[in-house]
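Supplementary Methods, section 5.1.

A reviewer requested that the exact input to the structure prediction be made available. We therefore reproduce it here, unchanged from the version used in the analyses.
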Amino acid sequence: MRSVRARAALGATVVVALALAAAGLAVLLVLRANLTDQAGLQAEVAARETAGQLALGVPYDKLDMSDEEDHPVQVTDEDGRVVAVSKDLEAISGTGTGGVAPQRPPALAATGDDDEERDDDDATADPARGEVSTDDPDFTHGTATVDGDRADYRFASVEATNPAGRTLTVHAGAPLAAEQRAVTSVRGAMLAGLPVVLLVVAGVTWLVTRRALRPVEGIRREMAAITASEDLSRRVPEPGSHDEIARLARTTNETLTALEASVERQRRFVADASHELRNPIASLRTQLEVGAAHPGLLDVTGAVADTVRLQALAADLLLLARLDAGERPGAALLELGALVREEVSQRTGDRIPVTVSAPEAGGFEVTGSRAQLARVLGNLLDNAERHAHGAVAVAVRREGGGVVVEVTDDGAGVPEAERERIFERFVRLDDARTRDEGGAGLGLAIARDVAVRHGGLLRVSGAGERGARFALWLPDAR
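The structure derived from this sequence is encoded cell-by-cell as follows.
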C-alpha cells in the first residue's frame, strides 16, 4: 500500500463506507421509529374505541372487538383481573398480565349469578360518571397469539371508568410485522447496494488520483533525467493549471535556476581561485629554484612578497568559504568610532595618510563580529589606498536609524555602469590596477557579503568631481 493512488482510493472508500453506514443506520432508526409510532397510534385508536364502550356501560361480554385479529384487546380491572379479551386471543405478553380467560369478581363467582350483578350495576349506575382518560397512553412492546399465530405487537394502555365507578384498563395492540418487513427490506437493499457504491467510489478515486498525479510523475521523470545527466539547464514541465502541483513545478524550476547559478558561481570561483593561486605559487617556485641553483641570485624580498600575497589570498578564500557556508556573525556590542580610530592607527605603512572624522563622544554602537567588521574597514581602506592620488578620509556619522562609515579617496572613481560589478568576486576594472599591484578582486566582495550578513548595506558613489565614496551602513544596536 505504498502507492499514493492506492492509499487515496482506500481512504476514500473507508470514509464513504463509514458515512454510508452511519447514514443507513440513521435511516433505519428513523424508519423504525416512524413505523413504530404509527403502530402505537393504531393501538391507541383501538384501545380508546373499547374504552369508550366501557365508559358507556356496555357489558364485558357485549363489547364490540370485531377487529381483534389485527388488534388483540385485553381488559383488566383495578385488581389486575382479566375481565374481557378479544376473540381467539390465546396468549399475550407485555401488558402486565398474561391472562386470556375473563374472570368474574370473587363475590359473584361464589353465587354464580351474573344477571344479578348486571341488575345491581344498572340500578346504581350513573351514566354521567363513565369516562375515558384523556392522558397519553402507556406504550409497551409484547407478543400475542391469535388463532394460533404468534406475532410482535405494540400495545397501548388506556384507562376508562364505567358507570359503576370501576376503573378498567384497556390494552390494545397493533402488529409490528409491517414495520419489521419494511426495515428488513430497506436494510437488505442497503447491504446489497453498499459494495457496488464502494467499488464505484474506489474506481473513481483511483482514476481521479491517477490523473491528478500525472504531472507529478512528469516532474519526477524529468528530475531523474536531470540527476542522471547533471544538466542543470533543463527544467521540469509546468502544468497549465493553477493548483498546488503547478506551484510545485514552478518552485522546482526556481530551485533548479538557483542551483544552476550557484554551481556556475562555484565553477567560476574555483577557476578564478586556481588562476589567482597559480601565479604567486609559480613565481615563488621559480625564485626558490633559482635560489637553490644559485644562492646568490635568490630574491628573498620577492619570495616573501609572494608568500604574503599567497597567504592573504588563502585567508580571503577561507573567509568566503565560511560565509558561503552560512557562518553567522557574532552579537558583540561594538562602538564603530573607536573601531575606526583603532584600525587606522595600526596602518603605519600606508602610502597616503588617512584622515579620520569619528567623534570620541561615541554613540555609534552596533552589534556584530569585531573581526569581520574590522576586515571590511581594512578592505575599504586598502582599496582607497590603491586608487587615491593624495587623500584618503574616513568619517563616521548617524543616518536613518543606523551608523554610516564612509571611506573616500580622490582617485579616478568608479564608472557608474561598473558600481555593482566591482562587488563581484575576482572582478577587476580594466583601468583600475594590475595584478602586480596587489589584490585578487575579493576585497570588495568580502566587504559587501559581511555587511549584508550584519543586516547592513555597502554602496559606492562618486566623491565630488573625482574619486569614490564607499558607504557602509549598519543598523544601530539600540
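Residues 108-127, 431-436 have pLDDT under 50 and may be disordered. These observations are discussed further in the main text.
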